[in-house]
From TrEMBL:
Annotated organism of origin: Eucalyptus globulus
Pfam families tied to this protein: Glyco_hydro_28
Protein name: Polygalacturonase
Superkingdom classification of source: Eukaryota
Family named by the database record: Belongs to the glycosyl hydrolase 28 family.
Length: 337
């Protein structure tokens, strides 16, 4: 059993202004590094077990004093390789590179029970030149979530996540397979997601933000994705996520533009897609190409629900919402973004 009574604390990340789930500092991660270069965490598929049960129970009982520890967190570091390790039962997020550059995570397995709270698989955060590949992730929250800070703190810190590649990942989660956001106040750009297989997920691809976040999400390309058993295949939403405190500016509206999703198919998908922009900052350049998301037999929701968005669609089944203008060839969709 983990003894949490003397677990050391560290300061909150400046781009968050406080712990992610509780005000004040944070319990230090099981493996933690700050200001490192040339980091290698590897093994012959040995297991690092975070023994998260005690932390999950504290969360459920609302007895946490501070934010739970990640399993691995590297801060202000560069030239990182994490490979050939099984990570399981993290108290909170599993692998969290923040303010890092040149990060490779490959050939890892990440496991946590489906009901374990906030056990995201890999969360690159205000980091650049990140490659996540050839891995299996089955967790209680988002499989991979790209982040960059929280409301006014992320805006002030101003470090985007950029040049992120996610490929050949298989995952399962009651929440999102691949998520962009919702904490993205430093901006997120140049993300490539390809060759991803998702099973028993809440949402296949989820781009999420909120008023008060500011910054931007742009130049996102998702291709060759298979989704099986999902509530929603695609969700792009401007009303997701909470705020760190009352100091955020509700008029700091994110700009979401240039999202291309192509060659995506799904089976047993309850709703193909929901795209809900922000009234005073509509999402633009949202393009779907060769997207086939088939539902379960019998009554179902409207296959698409859209508002405050513009873009294009080519070979989308079921037929997309009218806000996405039908185009006659794939290049038109790609160029539209």
């Amino acid at each position: 059993m983990v003894d949490t009574s003397n677990w050391p604390l560290i300061a909150p990340l400046p781009s968050y202004g406080r712990g992610r789930e509780r005000p004040g500092g944070r319990y230090v991660s099981f493996i933690h590094g700050d200001g490192l270069q040339d980091v290698i965490i590897t093994g012959e598929n040995g297991t690092i077990d975070g023994q998260g049960d005690v932390w999950w129970n504290m969360w459920r009982q609302r007895t946490l004093s501070f934010t739970r520890p990640n399993l691995v967190e590297l801060v202000n570091s560069r030239d990182i390789i994490i490979s050939n390790v099984v990570f399981q039962n993290s108290p909170f997020w599993n692998i969290h590179p923040v303010y890092c550059s040149n990060v490779v995570v490959r050939n890892v397995t990440i496991l946590a029970p489906v009901d374990s709270p906030n056990t995201d698989g890999i969360d690159p955060d205000s980091s650049s030149n990140v490659c996540i590949e050839d891995s299996y992730i089955s967790v209680g929250d988002d499989v991979v979530a790209v982040k960059s800070g929280w409301d006014e703190y992320g805006i002030a810190y101003g470090r985007p996540s950029s040049n992120i590649t996610i490929r050949r990942v298989t995952g399962s989660s009651p929440f999102a397979g691949i998520a962009i956001g919702s904490e993205m106040s430093g901006g997120i750009e140049n993300v490539l997601v390809e060759n991803v297989n998702l099973y028993k997920v809440g949402i296949g691809i989820h781009v999420k933000t909120n008023s008060g976040r500011g910054a931007f999400i742009r130049n996102i390309t998702v291709s060759d994705v298979y989704v099986e058993d999902a509530r929603k295949g695609i969700k792009i939403s401007g009303d997701v996520g909470d705020h760190p405190d009352d100091g955020y500016n509700p008029n700091a509206l994110p700009v979401v533009t240039g999202i291309l999703i192509k060659d995506m198919r799904g089976t047993n998908v309850q709703q193909a897609g929901l795209i809900r922009g922000i009234k005073n900052s509509p999402f633009t350049g949202v393009c779907l190409s060769n997207v086939n998301l088939h539902g379960k037999p019998g009554p179902r929701e409207d296959p698409w629900s859209c508002s405050d968005v513009s873009g294009a669609a080519f070979k989308v089944s079921p037929s997309p919402c009218s806000e996405l203008t039908s185009v006659s060839d794939r290049d038109s969709c790609a160029n539209y973004s």
